[in-house]
Design a protein that fits this description.
The chain is of the alpha+beta class. The chain contains 2 helices and 9 strands. The strands form 2 sheets. Strands 2, 4, 5, 7, 8 and 9 form a 6-stranded mixed β-sheet that branches. A 3-stranded antiparallel β-sheet has the order 1-3-6, with no helix packed on it.
Amino acid sequence: MKKSKPIISHILLGLGVFLTLLSSAGCNLPKAGQALTPTGDFANTAAAQTVSALTTQFALLITTTPPVTAQTSSPPPSSPTFTPVESVKPCERAEFVSDVTIPDGSEFSPGQTFIKTWRLKNTGSCTWTTSYRVVFDSGNVLGAPPSFNLPISVPPDGLVDISVNMKAPEQPREYESYWKLQNPQGVIFGLGSGGDKSFWVKIKVVAPPQTP
């Protein structure tokens, strides 16, 4: 027990010195706005450095925080608009409207005459004048002239009835006769989007009944 008293005394003495130094360091901390003045005292120097570091970090936190800006949404880009291009009508085109006379499959006796009439429409952009002609294309001409002029002028979108005198052949069977149009320059055209289709007449020649 006698040996432990000096040890305890030394501990208490050291603790007192430490508290005294700590208190002295706290009293020597700089006030707000006062410049730090280094001294030879290690505790004072450490405390001053700590306060300076905290002040610097706080100042950086204030100055480096980016301002919050309001975000505005831009309208979506508008889709491009396309203007349809009108198709250009060809100069010379025709369209079949109806068989005014002699529908397909009509029957005739050998050598019988008849008048075939087609109704056509001018679907081109040019007017058909009376210089335009109707021309035989293929099949059997059926006794008609191989070409003849239009009876009237036909403007675009106009109608015309084309009639021609024909005659049934002597041999009993089915016959077909195909026709087109021709402009004054000799260019042949017809029906359809390509202007290459014919209009026609189709008949059937039948033998007369036998008499007993």
